[in-house]
Specification:
mainly alpha; Arc Repressor Mutant, subunit A; 2 domains; 17 helices; globular
């Protein structure tokens, strides 16, 4: 383990690159096809199943708690019923097949088999050695899964571990900041880096009425302007949230060290850009409108 100083935001930058590649499978037609073979066809059921499967056949309450920003009624419409159609172990196998075909399609066979992919997998897995299970249910559940043998799948697995580790810690910070799931979405969207309201309504189960009520609460707290922009206080709160999330997520990147983090970020950014160029994400996914 290195004791060299690490840029406070280096872990966040590295996570962002890794998370971008992890998230490609959520928007991949390969995922819907693989889950469809199992009989899971509703897009929300697919989403809940593939992300929650590592937890086992849990109920709606556990999924709502772990995912944080989905409306519980939407979760309960699909969970736990989805496990009767496709048990978690079959969902995980289908997810692995979908990730394989998705990465091969987006990155190309040459990139998948390149030595840089194996290098990135090794670095990301080394960083994940320092992740903590405490109060991190999604990370801990995924940490129980075996590491795939193929480098591109091992890289995706490690990226998933690091993504869920940071995500679990982030939820604790949001709770500490007094933001419920929808308020967290509204303020993130207001930064211009979160999902547009269109995608929030389509994927999280919230209505325009729910959104407007959350906006009203945030205005009362002095976090949002009348036009929906963050106030100075709102901007400061979002940055405080990210900084505290950085602090809770430092261990993996301290363990990897500055040089390793820089190299993993470089490799991860190249993979993420290739996926983006290949059309991995909807054009209207992020932004304020």
């Amino acid at each position: 383990m290195t004791t060299a100083a690490l840029d406070p935001r280096a872990g966040r930058r590295c996570h962002n690159a890794l998370n971008s590649l992890h998230a490609t499978h959520y928007f991949s037609p390969d995922l819907g096809r693989e889950l469809g073979v199992l009989g899971v066809t509703h897009p929300r059921a697919v989403n809940f199943a593939v992300r929650a499967a590592a937890l086992g056949p849990v109920g709606a309450g556990a999924v709502t708690a772990a995912f944080y920003n989905y409306k519980h009624e939407l979760v309960a419409a699909h969970v736990p019923a989805v496990w009767d159609t496709a048990p978690p172990e079959r969902v995980l196998a289908a997810r692995a097949r979908a990730v394989d075909t998705t990465l091969r399609r987006l990155l190309g066979e040459e990139a998948v088999s390149a030595p840089q992919t194996a290098e990135a997998a090794g670095l990301a897995l080394r960083a994940a050695e320092a992740c903590s299970r405490s109060a991190r249910p999604l990370y801990s559940a995924h940490a129980d899964l075996p590491v795939p043998e193929e480098p591109h799948l091992a890289y995706w697995h490690a990226a998933t571990l690091l993504r869920e580790h940071r995500g679990d810690g982030h939820l604790a910070v949001l709770m500490s900041a007094g933001l419920d799931g929808l308020e967290a979405l509204v303020t993130h969207t207001a930064t211009g880096r979160g999902m547009t309201p269109k995608w929030v309504f389509a994927t999280r189960g919230w209505s325009q009425e729910d959104w407007d009520a959350a906006v009203g609460r945030l205005r009362e707290r002095g976090l949002l302007e009348e036009d929906g922009e963050l106030t100075e206080r709102g901007v400061a709160l979002r940055e405080e949230i990210e900084q505290e999330t950085d602090r809770l997520d430092r261990a993996p990147y301290d363990h990897l060290g500055p040089d390793g983090v820089a190299r993993l970020t470089e490799l991860g950014t190249a993979f993420a850009r290739a996926a983006l160029t290949a059309g991995a994400f909807p054009a209207d996914l992020l932004g304020k409108r």
